[in-house]
TrEMBL record:
InterPro entries: FAD-bd_FR_type, FNR_nucleotide-bd, Riboflavin_synthase-like_b-brl. This is Ferredoxin--NADP+ reductase. GO terms for molecular function: oxidoreductase activity. Residues 1-107 form the FAD-binding FR-type domain. Transmembrane segments: none annotated.
Length: 238
């Protein structure tokens, strides 16, 4: 396993609780849209075993042509050891990244693509939207639906409706409106539905989509292959 130590070159305050840490790109480090990486803080590998409290699984919110690895995360006042340390870091400090992989690259199958996310989960979809804007081949349209109860919506410069690009963006701040809209979107029985958020959020979305007749193969999750069967075999008897 290759571990890349890289410096923070910029810290962006996206909203009062959400920050993007822009990291220098190591020379041979590559990734694609929808990628995640493991981000680790100094000291994580000092002992015989890695200190897991200093490691987090993070989505990359940028594309390679932006010449920086963007890690966008929410840091609340009361937070974990990892985020407490992360909040104290400054430009020039180093972090480690390793085990980079994409579970949700943009599928180009001449279908409509729906991006369903909760809060900072939108960071996973930022590169997919940018990739679509750069090249819309074999994607009929893209629709983003994000729920964030804080009402401090993210990346509104990118996630804004652009009819000429066949792109629509929708933000809601409550579950009722969100799930009603998911049901409306699921009237497209041939669409591809990408879902990013907490495990509870995934289960709830899958439940709604399957009940609306969407097939498991149309639902894309940021999960490894072996985890997909667990999430996509939701018990609908409740």
């Amino acid at each position: 396993m290759q571990i890349y130590w890289t410096k923070i070159n910029k810290i962006i305050e996206e909203t009062p609780e959400v920050y993007t840490f822009m990291l220098d790109c190591p020379e041979d480090f590559t990734w694609e849209e929808g990628s995640h990486t493991h981000m680790a803080l100094e000291g994580f590998n000092f002992g015989e075993k890695p200190n897991r409290s200093l490691i987090r699984h993070m989505s990359i919110s940028t594309l390679p042509h932006e010449n920086a690895i963007g890690i966008t995360t929410r840091i609340r006042e009361q937070c974990s050891e990892f985020k407490t340390i992360l909040r104290s870091l400054e430009v020039g400090n180093e972090v480690a990244i390793f085990k980079t992989h994409s579970n949700v690259p943009l599928k180009r199958e001449d279908k409509n693509v729906y991006l369903l996310s909760s809060g900072v989960g939108l960071a996973t979809f930022r590169p997919l939207a940018l990739d679509y804007f750069d090249r819309a081949d074999k994607v009929n349209l893209m629709h983003s639906l994000n729920i964030d109860s804080s009402k401090d919506f993210l990346f509104t410069d990118i996630f804004e409706t652009a009819p000429d690009k066949k792109f629509t963006a929708q933000f809601v701040d409550n579950r009722n409106d969100y799930y009603e809209e998911v049901k409306n979107l699921a009237s497209d029985k041939g669409g591809l539905f990408y879902v990013v958020g907490s495990d509870e959020f995934l289960v709830q979305n899958i439940d709604v989509l399957l009940k609306q007749g969407i097939k498991p193969g149309q639902i894309m999750l940021d999960k490894r292959e072996q985890q997909l069967s667990t999430f996509l075999s939701v018990d609908l008897s409740n």
